[in-house]
Amino acid sequence: MLRKFTTLYRHIIDEERKYPEATGELSDLLADIALACKIISLEVNRAGLIDLMGITGNENVHGEQVKKLDEYAHDTLVRAMEVSGHLCAIASEESENFIPVKEKFMGNRPMSKYIIHFDPLDGSSNIDANISIGTIFSIYKRVSDSGPGTLEDCLQCGTKQVAAGYVIYGSSTIMVYTTGRGVHGFTLDPTVGEFLLFYENIQIPKRSKTYSINEGNYSKWNQELKNYVDDLKSVDSSRRRPYSARYVGSLVADFHRNLLYGGIFMYPGDSKNPNGKLRLLYEANPLAFIIEQAGGRASDGKERILDVVPLDLHQKTPLFIGSEEDVLELERFLSN
Ligand code: AHM
Ligand code: MG
Fold it and tell me: Measured between alpha carbons, how far is 4 from 214 in angstroms, rounded to an integer?
């Protein structure tokens, strides 16, 4: 049977054609992200080799400063995005303030209507162990009228996202994205340098048998969460208990596995960190948009993640995300 190859760009363009009013700018923006992530992917793959080549500390063999990979990923994305002319503001985990795009990058064109948030290299503490890490992104339309983007443009509810996605640098490089019409996955074929469609319209199973949480923090959780996790571990075959535990400690990797096989990922608030560790704008919101498009659910324990009103670029939020029935059950435990 002849296999039909669909590249990421082909897919994005075909999706865009379904909107007669689309200008093509979002498609170009997504293609720019994919290109920047291909460059990051190369560098992530090389990182293991760099150790083999005897580079230690912060200097390489030429005596040059070696950038930390997360800084490299941030710089690569900012450089690629700034000059693209498809953004008016950029916000990143690696930058305290958002970056308004300068008029000079627009040439003769008017300033773009899009802003982006990204976590350039999520899970970067795992790099040395060769564990999957990734880039997460979230795109909005500006709310201000003209000129470089503003803080107000960057602080919008997750419901306003027009696109979101992530790229995993693992045993292969995978990009998953949504523009609000389903969730689609692509694998980078390094021989041709293209992301090729491997999964259209991904749907997460409604109920799973897997939970993902850093259980080392158990003593700091509230009683309701302890009750829920204890219940998952109880022996009761009629309720599919006990669940299996799977926790990589790299959000994109944990999320991607649960998206494909089903599962609930939790990063709760606790007595030490009431809002947990994960960030609303470039971790929770994009993954919440994806999970809802895949038929799942994302909550901060009290409300839908996408409805949380952001007040700060680097705001943290508890996150419970994954198979719908599991997240609903968790919410019932938390409200007891
Ligand atoms: P990072 O963005 O600095 O890499 O931190 C976020 C990471 C997530 O990828 C992961 O889910 C979480 O931190 C793991 O935290 P912990 O080690 O507390 O379980
Ligand atoms: Mg992160």
Answer: 41
